[in-house]
Design a protein that fits this description.
Elements lengths: L11 H9 L2 H11 L5 H8 L3 H14 L2 E7 L4 E6 L1 H5 L1 H14 L8 E2 L6 E2 L18 E3 L10 E3 L20
Antiparallel strand pairs: 1-2, 3-4, 5-6
Length: 175
């Protein structure tokens, strides 16, 4: 079955999920963050089918999150190295990890330690201006897409919008 593409939706979450939204892609990135760079080692760590891993690595390289660097010439073999774009995704993956530890598991198989201070830590999403934690009831989302006609702002928690002026996730305005 072919999946729906969200690559053109006027929503950064939809576009990100179009690229990263399957479980293998996030696990391949997890391995990269843990320092696993070679195809055979990633395949062994995840137990992923080779063709599936090839597809995920090609997608991540094509999107600019990883780059291939040759480490052997005969035959040519590559390591997969995080780019700046790939490293920038780390806070999002750390936040997913923290959420999963809180709500989905009773143990913590991986613990994060902040090298600067030496303490065990977890991801916290904060306001870029004041540093306070971002809580859903304290955030307002404003639509600024050129394709959107949504009026005003709404809470990030989700105030239901329907009727005239409502914009569907694919950017189609309800008149």
């Amino acid at each position: 079955m072919r999946r729906t593409s969200f690559a053109q939706w006027p929503c950064s979450i939809a576009r990100a999920m179009d690229l990263l939204g399957d479980q293998w892609t996030l696990l391949v990135l997890r391995e990269a963050y843990l320092g696993v760079r070679r195809f055979d080692r990633i395949q062994a760590e995840l137990g992923i089918a080779r063709n599936t891993l090839t597809e995920r690595l090609d997608r991540l390289v094509g999107a600019g999150l990883l780059r291939r660097e040759p480490y052997q010439q005969r035959p040519v073999r590559y390591e997969y190295v995080l780019t700046d774009m790939g490293r920038d995704f780390w806070p999002a993956l750390a936040a997913i990890m923290h959420w999963g530890e809180r709500w989905l598991t009773e143990d913590r198989p991986v613990r994060l330690r902040h090298r600067t201070c030496g303490h065990e830590t977890h991801a916290v999403v904060t306001c870029a201006s004041c540093g306070d934690p971002l809580r859903v009831r304290e955030v307002e989302a404003e639509q600024h897409s050129a394709r959107s006609v949504m009026l005003g702002a709404r809470s990030a928690e989700g105030v239901e919008r329907s009727g005239q002026g409502h914009v569907t996730p694919n950017g189609v305005a309800v008149r």
